[in-house]
Amino acid sequence: MAAPMPAASSSPSSARRDGRDGLGGQAVAISLAVAAFGVSYGVLAVGAGLTPAQAVLSSVAVFAGASQFALVGVLGVGGSALTGVLGGLLLNLRLLAFGAALAPHLPRARLARRLLDGYLLIDESAAVALAGPPRDAARRLRVVGVAVWVGWIAATALGAYGGDLIGEPTRWGLDAAFPAAFLALLAPWLRERPGRVSAAAGAAIALATWTWTPPGVPLLLAALGVVPVLLAERRTRPAPRSEA
Amino acid sequence: MRSTVASLGVVVGPVGAVLLLGLGTLALKAAGPVLGAGRTLPPLVDRVARLLPSALLAALTVSGTLAAGTTLRIDARLVGVLAAAAALRWRAPFAVVVLIGAAATAATRALGLAP
To answer: Is A104 exposed, middle or buried (0-12, 13-18, 19+ CB in 10 A)?
Structure first.
């Protein structure tokens, strides 16, 4: 799932309709943007060998788009399911950081409520929640989270069950929608040097290992792309512990 | 190690993989809200968690652009991804970037310029 903050601000008229801060219109705009992604996920999941029902189940069970793409990407090329799971979990490590950043602003509610907040935490809901006043963060997380959930599940079903109507996905360039979506997700990191370095290293590792390691393994190895950045930062800041 | 992972993968199957990914993802997403309240990650863990998506998403981008099974191949997808990159530079919204990537690839194929 993307972090399309530009899309979030693209509906000024709906901001007026929503009495307070335009949250409703923002949530709908984000949900629609995510839905475009969800349709192609549904198509690709079925193409990778899941049944349509399994594809919808996967969107409900995981509800974290990029990792779902990673899993069906590995399954689709005949890779080990466990490799796909590990790759997806590595991708989702960032959600741990989002959750940690949001936690101080969330109420000390029942366990079920906290689990639900966690379930609704994805890039978009976390970004919107962290962007406004802290006292209202929980409401923004839930409104955007539920809107994206509805759009994501419905779009997955549309792509999974209606994919046949679309016909051969390559004819419509849907195979390129995949990397285009990942590039769009990657864009925020490319604005700063550390992100650019780890992205370049990760891409280089994946390409260098693609033809001679089992399917899915290059994605895991690509995680080592962060190492050059960590080493460089260690050199320039010899005592990072003093910050904490 | 390699064969262990592969054989476990066969046992797990696609539905098992989906459920494992779902449980693991929920653990990652809910750790903050459940354990929560003002705690922060150790600096190194936090740094890795913030950087990791860039390395992984870049790997997914290049492999999605160039991979054909276990080989690499330049085809119409590259045109689409370059068009998507241009759209990103113009700060197009997410859905537009994806549509442009698909449309440029489809057009390249329709014109017979590349497979």
So the answer is: middle
